[in-house]
C-alpha cells in the first residue's frame, strides 16, 4: 500500500523535537522572509508649479516606491540604471550588519552603477522597527530619488503604543524648477552658495500655498475618534523643518526606527535624514472645519534658503450623508497652524531634549558605559582659495565656500574606499591620519580666527572591532554658527549630552545621560553648540559620517570610519558580491 503512516508515538517525537528546537533556538520561530524589489532608474516627465521637466526616478514614480519589510526580513533590491547619470542607492539608517557592500555612498562603499549596469543590494533588517528611507547617494540626485522604508515589527509582536487605525507616510522634499545637478555644478565652479529650491513638498506635492498647486496638494482624510500613525521623513536636501497640524496634538513614539518614551507636542522639528513616527488622535466628532498641516524651515546659517511653506490638508470624513460632501469641503473654515520663528534655536533645543529611549527590558538602551576611544571633532564652514585667473563668489572674490570636520575637507577618491580597505590597497586612495582632535584649537563659538582656509584630503579613522567610542561634535563660528544634522552610516548612536557654547571636558561629562538617551542615526549639532554621542564599533567595514545638508556634503563636511574585522567568522566583513560595480 506504499509508504506507511507514522505511528502516533513517532509523530509525537517529531512534534516534540520541533517544539524543543524552537524553545532552544527562538530565532527560528521569528526568522524573516526575503522580499524582492525591482528598481528601474529612468527619466520621467513631471509637472510641478506649472513647470514640466524630466527627472531621474525609480520606476517612473515621484517620490519613489515604498520598501515594506518586517524586522528580521532580508531585502533584495535589483537596481538597473537606464539614465545617463551614475547612480547609487543608500538605505538610510539600515544598520547593514556585515553587509557594508550594500550601504550605497558613492566612492565610499561602492563605485557608482553606470549607465546600462545593474547592481543587487542585499541586506537584512536587524533589531529595527519603525520608519527609515532610501535615497540616491551621489551628487544631488536624491532631490528626486527617494522613498520610504516601512519596517513593521515581527509577526504577532505589537507596537508599544496603541494600535493605529491607519499608517500614513509623509515625506518632505524639495522641488527645483531648474536641474539640481546643474545647480550644484555651477555653485562648485563659482565657489558661491547654490540657488535654493522653488518649493518644499509633502509626498512630492507643493500644496495650496503655491501657484499652480491647488491640485498638487497632499490630503489626509481621517475618521473622527480614530488614531493614525504618521511616518514622517525629511528627504529635503538642505533644510531642517518645523511641522505642525492646526488644532491637533501629536504624540512622538519613534525616531529613526527606534521607539522613544511617548510625549505630546503641537510642533516637531525634523532635520534632513531624520524620521519621526507620530500618533495623531482625530477629534471625537466631525469638527465642521478643515485643518492645514504645514512645514517650513528652521534656518540658522547666514546663507540663503527656501523661505517658503509647504502645506497639506487634513479632512474629516463626514458622519452621514447629511453632513458636508467632499465637494463642499472647500466651504468649511480652514485653520492654519502656528509654527515657530525661522531661527528658533530655543525650540529646537527643548524639543530634542524631550527625546528619550524607552530603556526597558524589552527595548533596552545599551549605552556604552566604558569608553575605549574618545574623539573631539569640530564641524563647520571654511574656505578654499579661488583658482588662479578666476573670480569666485565665496566669502570674498578670492575664495570659495568649503566645509570641514576638524578642518579637513573630505575629498572623495576615484575608487571605493571599502574595496581598497578590503583588498589592502589603500595607497593613493586614503590615509589613516585623520586628526582625533582639532589641530589648531581656538575659541570655537567665539571670535573666529582670521585664517578660514581648510585642508583637503581623504583621511579616515581606524577603529578596532567592538571598541566603544565617544565623539563630541562641536559647531564653530567660522563663517557663522549653524546647525549641522550629522548622519552616521552603519550604526545607531546614543546622544548622551548636548549644550551651547564650547564643550567643557571637565564640567560637561558628569552631566551625560547614560540611562535613557535617545538612540538615532542622524542628530543636529546645535547652532553655536555641541553634542556628545556614544556607539559600539561592532560592524566591520567603512562607514561614512557627514552633514545631511547636501550643500555641506558637497563642500566637504564628511569623513569616514574604518572598523577592523573581529577575530570570529561572524565578526568579519564577507567578500564583495560578484556584481559590485567597478570604477
TrEMBL record:
Location of the protein in the cell: Secreted, Extracellular space, Apoplast
One example of a Gene Ontology biological process annotation: lignin catabolic process
UniProt xrefs under InterPro entries: Cu-oxidase-like_N, Cu-oxidase_2nd, Cu-oxidase_C, Cu-oxidase_fam, Cu_oxidase_CS, Cu_oxidase_Cu_BS, Cupredoxin, CuRO_1_LCC
Broad class of where this protein is predominantly found: secreted
Protein name: Laccase
Sequence ranges assigned to domain Plastocyanin-like in this UniProt record: 42-155, 167-318, 438-566
UniProt-listed PROSITE patterns: MULTICOPPER_OXIDASE1 (PS00079), MULTICOPPER_OXIDASE2 (PS00080)
SUPFAM superfamilies linked: Cupredoxins (SSF49503)
EC number: 1.10.3.2
GO molecular function: copper ion binding; hydroquinone:oxygen oxidoreductase activity
Function: Lignin degradation and detoxification of lignin-derived products.
Known cofactor(s): Cu cation
Similarity annotation: Belongs to the multicopper oxidase family.
Reactions performed catalytically: 4 hydroquinone + O2 = 4 benzosemiquinone + 2 H2O
Keywords: Apoplast, Copper, Glycoprotein, Lignin degradation, Metal-binding, Oxidoreductase, Repeat, Secreted, Signal
Matches recorded under Pfam families: Cu-oxidase, Cu-oxidase_2, Cu-oxidase_3
CDD domains recorded: CuRO_1_LCC_plant (cd13849), CuRO_2_LCC_plant (cd13875), CuRO_3_LCC_plant (cd13897)
